[in-house]
Amino acid sequence: MSEGLTAAMFSGQASNGLVLVVDDEPDVRKVVRMTLEKVGYQVIEAEDGETAIQEIQKGENPLILDVMITDIRMPKINGVEAISYFQKEYPSVPLIVLTGFPDLDMATSLIQRGIVDYLVKPVEADKLRAAVAKAIEKREIHKL
């Protein structure tokens, strides 16, 4: 478990939700994490789909994610493969794509497959926070 997640879990602070950020660019992960942590989200990071799957399955119980944000172009397990896996294994977790290579056909296809939002890097902080809030709201409705 990452230090940030452990600290957040035991600090006694309420959280707006747990977000997994999957991107092969450390700077992108850092900016997304800082942007979301400022408004109360707990954030864990993974550099590719394979690491994301490992992060969730660490320990005895899988982590309960509220939102997953993923890049598309990554080594090992890419974003499209990760999305397919997470939609199958964790169908209630809303997914957001954050990509540096926008592709209208792919965006349309992914939205038809149920992703909540398709954002293009560099994304504005307000737009990112709004997308995550919308995804969590969708998850809450899905739970009802």
By CATH, the superfamily comes out as: Response regulator
The separation of the N and C termini measures 29 Å
Largest sheet: 5 strands, parallel
Number of strands: 5
The top level CATH class name:
Alpha Beta
- What class do helices, strands and sheet pairing give? alpha/beta
Range of helix content: 40-55%
Mean pLDDT: 87
Strand content: 15-25%
CATH T-level fold name: Rossmann fold
Tally of alpha and pi helices:
6
Strand order of the largest sheet: 2-1-3-4-5
Low-confidence stretches: 1-12
Question: What Rg do the Cα atoms give?
Answer: 14 Å
From N to C, what is the helix and strand string? HEHEHEHEHEH
Number of domains: 1
Query: If classified by CATH, what would the architecture be?
Result: 3-Layer(aba) Sandwich
Description:
- The chain is an alpha/beta fold and 144 residues long.
- It has a single domain (3-143), classed as Rossmann fold, CATH 3.40.50.2300.
- 47% of the residues lie in helices and 17% in strands.
- The chain contains six helices and five strands.
- A five-stranded parallel beta sheet has the order 2-1-3-4-5, sandwiched between helices.
- Helix 3 packs parallel to helix 4.
- The chain is globular and about 40 Å long.
- The termini are far apart.
- Mean pLDDT is 87; it is low at 1-12.
Short description:
The protein is an alpha/beta fold. The chain has helices spanning 3-10, 26-37, 49-57, 79-89, 104-112, 125-143; strands at residues 17-22, 41-46, 67-70, 95-99, 117-120.
Topology, element by element:
Layout: H1 3-10, E1 17-22, H2 26-37, E2 41-46, H3 49-57, E3 67-70, H4 79-89, E4 95-99, H5 104-112, E5 117-120, H6 125-143
Parallel strand pairs: 1-2, 1-3, 3-4, 4-5
